[in-house]
Amino acid sequence: MFSIADRYWGGHLNCPPDELFSRPLNVVTHGEELRGYSGALGLFRDGAATISIPPDRAEELRGLLAGLEDGCTPEKFAVALAPVAALVLGPAYLGYTTEVRGDDGEARSLNEEDAAAVESLREACGEEEWDHGGSSLEVPCSGVFCDGQLAALAGYETWGGTIAHIYIVTHPGYRGRGFGRGSVAHLARRALADGLLAQYRTLDSNEPSIHIAEALGFQRYATSMAVRLAPVA
User: Which structural domain, as residue segments, surrounds residue 179?
Assistant: First the structure.
């Protein structure tokens, strides 16, 4: 399972897959997939880390990270780049599964006939929450209805032709009733049936969301963190 993730993230971070978690700190420069991204992206696991940085600011950032060769945690990473950071995203749980546990509840696949229900859910959640977890019917989506309302919506984007990156959002009035978990379970099974590796990512601070992932059989692959850089003065 993790070999697929290794190949994806190795390509994404411009690092040989077998070197992703080979030493306490491995700093590489952005390749094609992160070209133009003005930020530093790191993966952390078991005391090892790989961080990809923009080539045009490599000297500056390598200098800031130089004191972390003996061990780079997400927290130390954020502190080291604080002088040049505009926004810190994470730390985040990054997990995968090839076998989903538990039932789908009453979740089903969604289609264009559900467009009005999706729009109603989007309005109930608000812009920021929708940006983080909402999905368009242009991608595969699963959901659960309750009292005629779309109570939860899960959708996935395909990354690198191998990974189904899952998003989930639940109506504020229907939380804590298992609707989100059922939607994710249904969608993850669809992704696996399509030959994709199901991926679940959520902030480490969102413990209820991590509990959903673990209950469904997702296993933590790594912790991720991104630091968007402030423009050079």
Answer: 100-216
- Rounded Cα–Cα distance for residues 201 and 177 (Å): 21
CATH number for the domain spanning 190: value is 3.40.630.30
Same domain, 204 and 114: yes
Judgement on whether residues 53 and 150 belong to the same structural domain of the protein: no
Number of domains in the chain: 2
pLDDT tier, 81 (very low <50, low <70, confident <90, very high otherwise): very high
What is the reported pTM?
0.90
DSSP secondary structure letters along 141-196? EEEEEETTEEEEEEEEEEETTTEEEEEEEE-GGGTTSSHHHHHHHHHHHHHHHTT-
The per-residue pLDDT for range 121-172, each reduced to its tens digit, is: 999 998 888 988 899 999 999 999 999 999 999 999 999 999 999 999 999 9
